[in-house]
Amino acid sequence: MTAIENRINTYLEDTISAERNFEHALASFGEAGEQGKVQSMLSSFSAKAKTQHERLTQLLERRGGSPSTAKTILAQTLAFTPLSAQIGQGSSEKNTQHLMVTFAAAAAEMAMYESLAVAAMTAGDTEVASLARTLQSEEQDDYNQVWSILHESVRESFEAATASGSSPAELIRTYVQDAIAAENSFETQLNGFSKEGNDPAIQSLFAEHAVETKGQYEALTTCLEALGGSTSTFKSLLAHVFNFAPKIAQVGYDAEERMTQNLMMAFAVENAEVAMYECLAESCRLAGDAETESLVLRIQQQEKATAEKVWSRIAPKAEQSILELRSAA
Ligand SMILES: [Fe+2]
Ligand SMILES: [Fe+2]
Fold it and tell me: How many angstroms does the Cα of residue 300 sit away from the middle of ligand 1?
C-alpha cells in the first residue's frame, strides 16, 4: 500500500469513528426531553449515522484496511457525553439545545467529508470521493432539517419555561449569560488555534476572529448588565459540547493534518454559534426585547461570515496534504 492509499484509509477510519460517536449521541438525544418531533428527527439521524459508518467500513475493508478502535480527534473533540449530565435545564429546553448541538455536528461532518472528498480526488481515488460526496449531501440534509425545526422548538421551550414560572426577562438573561460563557471559551480556543500549525493565512483568520469574539462577549456583557443581570461563572452548554482539551494529546498527525482538524472544529463552532444566536433572537422576539434581538443578529452575521471564510480554506488544505505526501514519496 502506498503512503497516499494509507493516508486515505486513515481518513476513512476517522470518519467511521466520528459516525459511530454521532450514532450514539443522537440516539441518546432521541430519548431525552419532551419534544416528540425533535426526538424522532434526531433518532432518525442516529439510524442514518449507523448506515453511514457501515458503508464506510465496507469500502475501507475492500481497500485492505480495517476500522481502528481508537477514538479519533474529531470524535474526541466533539464530545457529547457531558450533555446527558446536564442539570438545571427544563426538559423542553434540552431538546432545543440538542438541536443546536446536532446542527454543529452536521456542520462538522460536512467539513469532514469535504476534506475527504478533495483528498481522495487529489489521490485519484474516485470511489472514496464519490462515497464522501454522497455522505456529505446526507449531512447537508440533516443540517437543513434541524434548521427548519429550530424556531418551533424555541417557541415550545419558551412557552414551557414561562408556564413553569420563569419570566420572559429572566429567560433572556439566562440565555445571554450562556452566550457570554460560550464566547469566552471560544475566544480562548481561537487564540490557541492561531498559534498552532504552519499556515499564516489560516492562523491570522483565527486570530482576527478571536478579537471579534472578545468584542462579542463585551457587547453581550454590556447588554446583560442593562437587563439587570450579571455574568455567571458557570460553563455554558455549548462550551461543554466542544471538548477542546484532548487536542494536546494528539499524536501521529503532522502540522498539515492539524490545520485541517482545526478548520473542521472552527467550522463546527461557528455553526453552533449561528444556531445559538438564531434561537436567542427568536426568544427575544417572544419576550418583546428588540434591542437584544438586534445585537444578537449583528453577532450572528459575524459568525456566518467567519464560517464561510473557514469553509473556503478546507478544500485547499486537504489537497495540499496529499500533494505534500506525493512529493515526499
Ligand atoms: Fe462568537
Ligand atoms: Fe465565532
Answer: 8
